[in-house]
Amino acid sequence: MGNGKQALTLVAHVLRAGGVGTVLVPRYRCETMVLPFALEGMRVSPVDVGTDLLADPRALREALAREPGAAVLHCETYGNRGGRGLASALGAARRRGSAVVLDATHSVVDRLVGAGGAPGPPRGAAAGRGGSEPGDRAPGWDAVVASARKLLPVPDGAWLTWPDASPLAAGLARAVATLPERRPADELVTALGVELGRALESMRASRGRRREELRLEVCRIAARHEDAIEAALTPAPASARAVALLEGLRPGVLRPRARAARSLRTRLDARLRACGLRVVNPGSAGCVALGAASPAGGGAPDLRAVRALDAVEEALARAGRWGPVSWSDPDGGARAWPSVVTVPTDEPGRVEELVDVVGAALDGD
What we know:
Blueprint: H1 4-17, E1 22-26, H2 31-39, E2 43-47, H3 57-66, E3 71-75, H4 84-95, E4 100-103, H5 108-113, E5 143-147, E6 158-161, H6 169-177, H7 184-204, H8 208-231, H9 240-247, H10 251-274, E7 277-279, E8 287-292, H11 303-318, E9 340-344, H12 351-363
Parallel strand pairs: 1-2, 1-3, 3-4, 4-5
Antiparallel strand pairs: 5-6, 7-8, 8-9
Helix pairs in contact: 1-2, 3-4, 7-8, 10-12, 11-12
């Protein structure tokens, strides 16, 4: 598929055509992830999340009791998988007739290298049937979506796969088989994605004033790229360039990212704890997500932790080392929203630089 939103658009269309009117989503989420369902006229119902920022199992069960037959959109946020309680709740939902859709965008690196031991999109498949779903284990999924460009060096593209036994299988197969040709809007997304990749490479190879000039240029191209993706709503195939890059991707190329993530977590651990911070995703290779540690007895995070996160985010931006994910509060502060900053792992050879940048921000230098 051209991008993750387009893949979710197909899923939402098939769900709505099957009479499903509500989708349960984690309260902590990317709004882009839920927009396709809202555009199909479905009611989007948020479910409270736990400390791992995944749907809380008890809250999910209660939501399903109120909304029997609602679809469930489960996101492996920052690569987190969830425990037995969540797996049990998702499995129960599926057994009782709810379609369970997995957004594996944040865990795609873990899946490709096997770090997460999870089922996932088959390597090299741009869209299609997931047949055997290698490594599948409870709860199982009726469809799996994973955007490729968030964590991988491709200009566009997303996986969409499903098992033959899924109640969505026939509808998704028809939708994929009748995808229209790529439009100018899709080609613009790819062109800007390629331009962005080249600008990033140039910036990373530069120093001093030239690096700062290129950093600002990267910001401008990235904004145009996001705008182009927002405009390319109609589902279409991924570009030939993205398909070729994904087909040529080898797990060995990605394994150093797992080592980089472990190194970052280990070397920053003491300073994170001193600032009231924690690693939100301790097992993922896709990025290192930092959040405020939960205060004893609950309540709002310590002001020191909030300031430390702001300092880390600003330091990474100044260094041109943006994390791959940043989500704003869709409710405008009506309820507490988890503040998370992600540290990239896509350049394992520059772990020292990242440790210096993040460490200096935490130390207040």
